[in-house]
Design goal:
This protein is α+β, with helices and mostly antiparallel strands. The chain has a four-stranded antiparallel beta sheet. The N and C termini lie far apart (40 Å).
Length: 208
C-alpha cells in the first residue's frame, strides 16, 4: 500500500496518553517514536488494495494500533491496545456524532462508503486487487435496512500474517462503540476475526 501518515498523526496523542497513564512518560515517548517507523513499514508491506480504494482507510486506521503492539514486542497487553483504539475513537467523537443513525439521512450517509466500494470493486478491480475487501448485502433483514456483510477482510489476513491476530477480535468489538457515537446500535451475529464466514453489519438508530 502507498504510505499515508495521516491516521498515525491523528491518533498519536490519544495513544500516547493511554501509554503515559499506564507506563509513564518515558516509556510512552519511546513506544510512540518506535511505532511511527513500524507503522510506515506495515503500510508499505501490506498488500496493494488500490490507492483509490474507498475502504483503504479501514486498514490504515487499524494498523495504527498494531504498530505500538509490535513496537513493544507484544509486552503491551492486547486489552491496552484496545483501550488506545477506544480512546482514539472518542478523541474524534464529534466527527462521528455528525451522523445520526435515527434518521434516513444518517443511515444513507453511513452506508454511502460501502455502496461506493461495492460499485468500485468491479471484476477488473478484483483481478488487480484480489485480497481487498469483499462486500455483499446477502441476508438483508428488510428492504432499505442499513445492512451489509464483509466476507473477505485484508486486515484480518494481514494481522494473521504478522502474528498479531489476537488483536482483531478486540478491534472488531469497537465497531459497536463507533456506531454508538453515531447514535446507533450494531446488531451483529459474528466476525471473521472470530472464525465466522463474514462480519455482518445490521445497524439501527438507538431510538428505534
Amino acid at each position: 500500500m502507498k504510505y499515508n501518515g495521516f491516521y498515525f498523526y491523528l491518533f498519536k496523542h490519544p495513544m500516547k496518553k493511554v501509554l503515559w497513564e499506564k507506563y509513564g512518560r518515558e516509556y510512552a515517548k519511546k513506544i510512540i517514536k518506535k511505532s511511527k517507523t513500524i507503522y510506515r513499514k506495515l503500510i508499505e508491506e501490506a498488500d496493494d488494495i488500490g490507492n483509490d480504494n474507498p475502504m483503504a482507510y479501514n486498514e490504515r486506521f487499524a494498523l495504527v494500533f498494531v504498530s505500538p503492539y509490535l513496537a513493544s514486542e507484544k509486552s503491551i497487553p492486547p486489552e491496552i491496545i484496545q483501550e488506545m483504539m477506544r480512546s482514539s475513537l472518542y478523541f474524534i467523537s464529534r466527527y462521528f456524532s455528525l451522523t445520526d443513525l435515527n434518521t434516513e439521512r444518517g443511515k444513507e450517509a453511513n452506508k454511502k462508503n460501502i455502496v461506493k466500494y461495492y460499485k468500485w470493486y468491479t471484476e477488473e478491480k478484483e483481478k488487480l486487487y484480489p485480497t481487498s475487501f469483499k462486500v455483499d448485502f446477502v441476508g438483508e433483514p428488510y428492504e432499505g435496512a442499513c445492512y451489509y456483510r464483509i466476507t473477505r477482510c485484508p486486515i484480518c489476513a494481514y494481522t494473521k500474517k504478522l502474528g498479531v491476530a489476537e488483536l482483531m477480535p478486540l478491534f472488531c468489538e469497537l465497531d459497536e462503540v463507533m456506531i454508538s457515537l453515531q447514535h446507533g446500535v450494531l446488531h451483529r451475529k459474528d466476525t471473521i476475526a472470530n472464525g465466522a464466514d463474514c462480519c455482518d453489519y445490521f445497524i439501527t438508530g438507538d431510538r428505534e
